[in-house]
Amino acid sequence: MLKTCAQCGSAFDITDEDLALLDKVSPVVGDKKFALPPPTMCFHCRLQRRLAFYNARSLYHRKCDLTKQPIVSIYSPDKPFTVYERRAWYGDGWDPLEYGMDFDFSRPFCDQFRALMETVPLLSLAVLSDNVNSEFTNDNLALKNCYLIFDGERAEECLYGHTFAGIKSCLDFVVLTDCELCYECIHCENCYNCKYARYSINCSDSWFLRDCISCKYCFGCANLRQRKFCIFNEQKTKEEYGAFMRQFQTSSFPAAQEMKKKSDAFSLTQPVKAVRGEQNIDVMGDNIYQSKDSSSCFDCYRMQDCQYCTDCLVGAKDCCDIHIWGDAMELSYNCCVAGVRVRNLLSCYYVSEGCDNVFYSIYCSRQSRNLFGCIGLRHKSNCIFNKQYSNEEFEQLAQKIIEHMQRTGEWGEFFPPTISSFGYNETMAQTFFPLEKKEVLARGWQWGDFEAPVEADRTIRTSQLPDDANDTPDDVLNWALLCEVTGKPFKIIKQELQFYRDHRLPLPRRHPNQRHADRYGFKNPYRLWNRACAHCRKPITTSYAPERPEKVLCEECYLKEVY
Ligand SMILES: [Zn+2]
Ligand SMILES: [Zn+2]
Hints:
Elements: E1 2-4, E2 11-13, H1 16-25, E3 28-29, E4 32-33, H2 43-51, E5 60-63, E6 70-73, E7 83-84, H3 86-90, H4 109-117, E8 122-123, E9 138-144, E10 147-156, E11 159-168, E12 171-177, E13 183-189, E14 192-195, E15 204-207, E16 216-219, E17 228-231, E18 234-235, H5 238-247, H6 253-269, E19 272-273, E20 277-278, E21 281-289, E22 292-301, E23 303-304, E24 316-317, E25 320-326, E26 329-330, E27 333-339, E28 343-346, E29 349-352, E30 356-359, E31 362-364, E32 369-372, E33 381-384, E34 387-388, H7 391-408, H8 428-432, H9 437-442, E35 458-461, E36 479-482, E37 489-490, H10 494-502, H11 512-522, E38 529-532, E39 539-542, E40 552-553, H12 555-562
Parallel strand pairs: 7-8, 9-10, 10-11, 11-12, 12-13, 14-15, 15-16, 16-17, 19-40, 20-21, 21-22, 23-24, 24-26, 25-27, 27-29, 28-30, 29-31, 30-32, 32-33, 35-36
Antiparallel strand pairs: 1-2, 3-4, 5-6, 17-18, 33-34, 36-37, 38-39
The protein binds zinc ion (2 copies).
One zinc ion is lined by residues 533, 535-536, 538, 553-554, 556-557.
């Protein structure tokens, strides 16, 4: 079935598999199954809507409204919300059911939900454990001495990154698993002491690698397997490699930029695989691993019978339209940040840990079931708008609310950006679908204007920095540097300066937000195109757009080329 997206106007297809999965995830309330309607928007507009609810990385100083202590939060102090610090929020000092509201059938669901959001205390940060010395982080657990890292678990001494598991002393990254001492790496696994590596596994002591496996002491290489002392894919002796590296002044900003340019240019001469992924059966997507019978899934592991899922790194089954998480997640639809033994979730944000049958709710967890339009509930059942009902009452009222939402056109849709707790620019929607302030406001969406001042002894342009980090005085820690792209001031922290000096790297010239945007700009989009293999002309589906300069190969041709 070909449909026109209600938001962007583009044509999109709803397949029989899409409809079958929608039927499978349609909720049953009491004795009635409530069919989910086919989506009104294309995959990207649906994803954008979920992301506009999700602030992963905009952090602010404010006060906890319960303890009155200064805290760090995803809610800027100008927001109309009550915000509690994590321990206070999870503590016994308040009861979320005290904020219960009656449902009003004369108003749309979402208006009433926004009113509830402005009443119930919200969790300051989406952090699941007592982290050590890592206040400026969010959406994570088990961190020690980390700063501005988001969406992941188990990290020590890591700074400025997004999406990770089990990493140590890494700086400026996106999607790293089990890595140590890596800098400016993208989608790497089990790497040690790599700089500017992309899509590489089991590599160490190397620079500017792309799609390499098990390489050591290599520079600017692509598609190599188990090699040592290669420079731009050419085998060198150990001595030649050493001489080359001595010549490369890694700590000089212009020298590093020059090498980056050379490596990018060389990388373009080497083929890429149409789809990055391993151990899959019948899947379509990109960066997808150990998955089965799934389509349009990106950055996912261990998916089964799933569609349109993104960034689900720990597995899901029978799920559709989920961004982030997984981990024994089943039969869920249209959620953002949901996982850990959850099932039958519909349009939820940050719902986790054993929840079942939870609809249109946020921040609910710990074995809650039968919730509808709830905020902040744990170990609760049969609640609607934070009000307790009997099981029978819940079923009757929930059925009526669904019928009401079918009439208002809200049923099956995720919460709209108009009721998000965040400005569009504060959310991950800005990372994936960047928009100017005027475009956002023209759509009737929100923009966050709150900017905390950067305190500094002096402000300098990054072009005034010495080329070499070693020539930079310690005093730089007290300066505000102006980003070469956005002009936004940013600071260097002590741990960071030490890393640059230890690893002979130049200081960054861009604000951490710009570096984050740059890395996401490098990643391929969550989008697939049909084109032909550059060698055998076989049709392929790939996230490399047809106009891109890379030589894109089908799996067979790629394997012939690299092994
Ligand atoms: Zn669209
Ligand atoms: Zn081919």
